[in-house]
Amino acid sequence: MERSTIVRVHEGLHARPATRFVKLAKGFESDVELVKDGKAVSAKSSVKLMLLAVKENQEVTVRANGADAIEAVEALIGYLENPRAGLDDEHEAGESGSEPAAPAPEAAPQAAAPADGTPKLQGVAASEGVAIGLAFAHFPPEIAGPGRRLQADEIEGELERFRGAVATVQARMDRTLAENNLSAGDRGIVAALRDIAADDSLTGEVERLIGGGDDAVSAVIAAAATIAADFSAVDDHYLNARADDVHAVGRQICLVLLGQDEVSLETIPQGAILIADDIGAWDLARAPLKRIGGVVCGHGGATSHIAIIARSHGIPAVLGLGDKINELRGAREVAIDGNGGHVIVDPDDATRADFTRRVDAAAQERAGLKVFKGVTPTRADGTVIEVAANIGSLEEIEAAQEAGAMGVGLFRTELLFMRHMHLPSEDMQAETYSALAKAFAPHSVIVRTLDIGGDKPIAGIEFPDEENPFLGWRGIRMCLDRPDIFKRQLRALLRAAVHGNIKVMLPMVSEISEVTRTRALVEECAAELKAEGVPHAGFDLGVMIETPAAVLVAPALAKEVAFFSIGTNDLTQYVMAADRLNPTVAKLNDVTNPAVMAAIELTAKAGVAAGIMVGMCGEAAGRPDLIPAFVKMGLTELSMSPASIQRAKKTIAAMATEK
Ligand code: PEP
Ligand code: MG
What we know:
Blueprint: E1 2-6, H1 15-26, E2 31-36, E3 39-42, H2 46-51, E4 59-65, H3 69-81, E5 110-111, E6 120-122, E7 124-127, E8 130-138, H4 155-178, H5 184-198, H6 200-211, H7 216-233, H8 237-240, H9 242-258, E9 272-276, H10 281-286, E10 292-297, H11 305-312, E11 317-319, E12 333-337, E13 342-345, H12 349-370, E14 386-391, H13 397-403, E15 408-412, H14 414-418, H15 426-440, E16 444-448, H16 475-481, H17 483-496, E17 501-506, H18 512-532, E18 540-545, H19 548-552, H20 554-558, E19 563-566, H21 568-576, H22 594-610, E20 613-616, H23 627-633, E21 637-640, H24 645-658
Parallel strand pairs: 8-9, 9-10, 10-11, 14-15, 14-21, 15-16, 16-17, 17-18, 18-19, 19-20, 20-21
Antiparallel strand pairs: 1-4, 2-3, 2-4, 5-6, 6-13, 7-11, 8-12, 12-13
Helix pairs in contact: 1-5, 4-5, 4-6, 4-9, 5-9, 6-7, 7-9, 15-17, 17-18, 21-22
Phosphoenolpyruvate is lined by residues 410, 412, 451, 546, 567-570, 617-618.
């Protein structure tokens, strides 16, 4: 059984997507391979998968052989076509599941001309921001193997020792993953490293070398060097950066074999600049990140895991200094510019004053936005504008609350369905929705019913092959045809409504009967729960406005529902007849096109005239350049990625004072 597809995973199957893909593949008994350009590798090895260097928009084939081959191919193709489909416990932070944007492209490290007499080192601008602080040099000693040849009767014992060390490293990483203080992004990185530690490519090579008489430490160093060299040779700078990850994992295994501990980062003083030749992503993820003022490294680039962690924690970083890192070994104070990629060692008074001013200005800007966390923005007439969060899992609650979300304007339930190998039970769904309701009460939590279709299949629902899945059996259409699945979700939502302010919205609505038929099902579910003696409560029912049909019948639709939420992502693709996944027509996919803005305005007018709440949960809701127009149209709720919330509140607050 095999099927080909075009990969839609952002930036291809690099570390974390590869980890997810492997996890998905390992859920099936069948042998599964991924084939690109005639080369086939096991889909159950993340190292092999990464080395296949599959990029976004490339064609690949998923091939499976075994009892559950059909399901395996369906699930893996589903993931490749919709990256969100593979999100699991180690999913990335952020609504889109993407990493914090990488800054300027990598520049080759070189010495910059000293502009002001102060020696400046040039590296890769890996995480924006400026910092100045005491240098904290972190140069753990190199590890070398004893280089002893094993006797034949020692080999079995050495293999056991190696397997034990791998298990210890994995257990440590699992413990780190189990702790709650890792961000979702860091969790994904640690999970990717754990997979490298267990990957057949590494363990197989080490075992082969030990079998040939190498001691375990030497074998790990050699095997890690071979795999790292493979990563370095791939024509993809993202994959090149994985070489450092392989070395870091190898180092952890060696430390366990040698009974040594890694030099700790625990003692880093507040605001200090961490200087290292290389820092394992695992070490950095566990370090007291709040105390680290900046990071400077000999290794790494804009796409290395150190850079990703630094960006997601707002820590300025300059990486890839190469051997010049040694010039910082004895530094007392360091100033770094993560925008330009400069490092200044022991800055003079003028440089210190300049950096201090820039650091203060940046902090002021951040603090300036922070004050909006608790703000309840209002229009000039006093109407509150709810600024809510778009989330897709319980793990994102904290980030939303930290940002100051006034509830959830879109809870995408697809992830709940996609992250499991079978349909989630009513109890499991009720638990998830209840936890969400409790976390945000008394604010509302708008849960969107399952929005799934032929473009993103899930285990447990058979989808027909469709020429145009975006125009096919998806969202409310599929749910109404499958009351067994839909009623389970509606019952769970009725049960969760007891615990907070749950609202429910329907995706992809194009005619009024879809609402009336849903309402009948909700009533049926409520009657069943009552008969069963199960506590439940009613909820407001609303619709997403994301089809041109819904816009055109909005006045009539508004009489049937409690609220509208405009889904600009789909509304734009349907109004403009431009596939939201097709880069060739990306230009047409523009929410600011007058046709789309007119559709939004028509919707707002219909909702306002009927006296119902009109909100927006598409990407456009977080755009400061568009928010004033939406508020003027009458929208009173804007739901967005947590990262956009404070700026949105500021934008709305500024509108009120303009009047
Ligand atoms: C939308 O279409 O604007 C929306 C919010 O839904 P999704 O992006 O999940 O389709
Ligand atoms: Mg949509």
